[in-house]
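Chapter summary example.
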Amino acid sequence: MDWTALIATLVGAVIGVGSTLTTDRVRWRRDTGERDRETLRTVYAQFLEALTGARDAISDASRSGHLPADERVELARAGILANGVHAKQYQLELLATPEVARFATDAAYQLLLYRDAVVAGHLRDDPECTEARRAFREARQKLMAAMRSALTRP
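The structure predicted for these 154 residues follows.
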């Protein structure tokens, strides 16, 4: 019996099975990474959408100088709740990197400060309202940069 042919066949089979398993594992990791990134993309977009909707409602309230103060206050407060800012922030914090979560918390906090300026009776062109709006915008830009960075990592 020729052992070399049998050993060569066995080694070839082991190499073939090993390379197939390795290829499948690499493909699985790549697909899992893509699904994870797509999930993050969706959660990030939902949170940014909530921030934007709430900011728009707060901004509308700040422009409504003709409305009674209590109606303006209600519009500003309702913007946060109606857009689910806190719920979407918590969802983001569960999935995001600590850096993105920190920037998300800051952006939400700056949005609340903007809302508080409007609730305090300041209108859109008042310095307090303008400064709060700018601080929110800067916090949102930092958040978006961190999100982009987290999504481009391998």
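To summarize the output: The chain has five helices and no strands.
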